[in-house]
Specification:
Layout lengths: L26 H50 L12 H8 L2 H12 L16 H17 L5 H32 L12
């Protein structure tokens, strides 16, 4: 005996009056709807993937551009403004315990009787600033005979770097005041 399959669907019955809720769908109609829905989703997914690829390319270009700008900036920045390599721990400790020597270096340099002053517009290795450093070292070695000469020299260089930084900040402040146009020609807060 052969078995027959019934592939037709029965329509669901609604609760109102036990009448059919909607017209029956054939398997072919249902498959066509599923297939068209799948095709539509596939097209949407392809569109999203294309947008994502375009955005990824834009991001990669922006990252490369930022990297190029960073390299260009690093090349143009003078050596003096770049961060110094971290010093060994023992040098930092030596300077930290010699606050008295640092104060003596500053006072000797800034005293009215001192004809030798650093020129902050030139670097540490300029002949004038080297002569000032030699003068300060000779004067301080007699006062602090037991101090490490390298420590005194480092404190003199530190004073020179601080004077250069102060000069740069003062110049930047004056440029900003002139650029803002508020006409303030008196001494800046940095000079007080």
């Amino acid at each position: 005996m052969a078995c027959k399959r019934n592939l037709s669907f029965t329509t669901p019955v609604s609760n109102k009056g036990l009448q059919p809720a909607s017209s029956p769908l054939s398997i072919n109609d249902l498959m066509k709807q599923l297939n068209s829905g799948q095709n539509a989703l596939s097209r949407q997914l392809e569109g999203l993937m294309e947008k994502q690829a375009a955005n990824t390319a834009l991001l990669e270009d922006a990252i490369q551009h930022l990297g190029a700008l960073e390299r260009k900036f690093d090349e143009q920045r003078p050596q003096e403004e770049q961060r110094p390599q971290e010093e060994p721990f023992h040098k930092r400790v030596k300077r930290a315990h010699n606050v008295g020597i640092a104060e003596a270096v500053r006072r000797l340099h800034n005293s009215e009787n001192n004809p030798h002053k650093y020129d902050p517009q030139t670097g540490i290795s300029s002949p004038r600033n080297q002569a000032v450093m030699t003068y300060l070292l000779e004067e301080l070695r007699t006062t602090f005979a037991d101090a490490d000469p390298e420590c005194i020299q480092e404190l003199c260089q530190q004073l020179q770097r601080r004077l250069e930084a102060d000069m740069r900040y003062t110049l930047l402040h004056h440029q900003r005041v002139k650029a803002n146009g508020n006409g303030h020609d008196g001494p800046s807060f940095l000079e007080l």
